[in-house]
Design a protein that fits this description.
Blueprint (H helix, E strand, L loop, with lengths): L22 H15 L6 H20 L3 H15 L2 H18 L2 H22 L12 H30 L17 H35 L6 H47 L1 H6 L1 E9 L2 E9 L1
Antiparallel strand pairs: 1-2
Helix pairs in contact: 2-3, 2-4, 3-4, 4-5, 4-6, 5-6, 7-8
């Protein structure tokens, strides 16, 4: 008697017979899955969002008049995030701070930050850069490279400018401005001189009148005669002459001098205001001394 055993094997097709299964295909499939798992860890959009937060904080310091503080904050966050754009931002703030303070060391710090950012930007264009960690799209990388280069060039030019200022010889102090004479001053001076001449003329006139009056009293004295009479008569004639000359000179001098003084003082008052009104004064008064008389001029010009 024969025993027959029948075995059923459950199987399913795998795109062909079991003999056609390729282990290499399974490896490639696993590799693809692994690659898919390492998707972008940083996108340009996410990097820009992080960058915006840092820039807003730095702007607060910049608006508060602290560009150096803003530059330090940007540089500190650039190192934390590895963001080349923030390095260039820091360099720009250092340049602003150095320009305001005319400080070469501050500008040089900015150049160093710009060069670090430039190195990172060039690395991102290379084949070794992690394509899953993108700070910028490729076109923006080129734009930031140009920006960093321009910033370095302008910072170096600023350093040369500051050095030239520091090495330049100090400018001589300007001479004090010469104050010109106020309008009417010349007329006041001329009027003062002529008035003084007029006063002197009136003084001569007064002296002549006094001499003449004294001589007249003496010649009327019956006790005066002979040689004494002649001397007194001669003195009287001299007094009369002095009186005539003095009155002519005095009247002419006073007329011209006072007129010039009045016009000159008026012009000074119009040009100088209230101060001249208080300081420019003129007064003419009679004076008598013994047997002589005259006028005295006093004033402030």
């Amino acid at each position: 008697m024969a025993l027959v055993v029948s075995l059923s094997i459950l199987a399913w097709p795998v795109h062909g017979t079991a003999a056609s299964f390729d282990p290499g295909a399974a490896y490639l499939l696993a590799k693809k899955k692994k690659k898919k798992k390492s998707a972008l860890t940083l996108t340009p959009e996410k990097a820009e969002s992080q960058r915006g937060i840092v820039r807003d904080k730095a702007k607060i310091l910049q608006d508060a008049g602290d560009p150096s503080g803003a530059a330090e904050a940007l540089g500190r966050e650039a190192r934390k995030l590895g963001d080349p754009v923030l390095f260039v931002d820091a360099a720009e703030s250092y340049k602003i701070a150095g320009d305001e303070a005319r400080d070469i060391e501050t500008v040089e710090r900015g150049i160093e930050e710009a060069r670090v950012g430039l190195d990172v930007l060039y690395f991102l264009l290379g084949e070794r850069a992690d394509k899953g960690h993108q700070y910028l799209v490729e076109d923006d990388i080129s734009t930031q490279i140009d920006r960093a280069k321009d910033l370095i060039a302008s910072s170096e030019a600023l350093i040369a400018e500051i050095e030239a200022e520091q090495n330049a010889e100090p400018e001589p102090e300007p001479e004090p401005e010469k104050k010109g004479l106020k309008p009417g001053t010349g007329m006041v001076i001329a009027g003062s001189v002529l008035t003084a001449v007029g006063v002197a003329g009136l003084g001569v006139m007064g002296a002549g009148v006094g001499m003449g009056a004294s001589a007249q009293n003496q010649v009327n004295d019956p006790l005066v005669y002979g040689t004494t009479f002649d001397e007194v008569d001669k003195k009287g004639k001299l007094g009369n002459t002095l009186a005539f000359v003095g009155v002519g000179v005095g009247v002419a001098g006073l007329a011209s001098g006072v007129a010039l003084l009045v016009v000159g003082l008026k012009k000074r008052k119009q040009a100088g205001g209230a101060d001249d009104e208080e300081t420019a004064r003129l007064r003419l008064a009679p004076v008598f001394t013994g047997d002589q008389g005259g006028l005295v001029l006093t004033g402030r010009f």
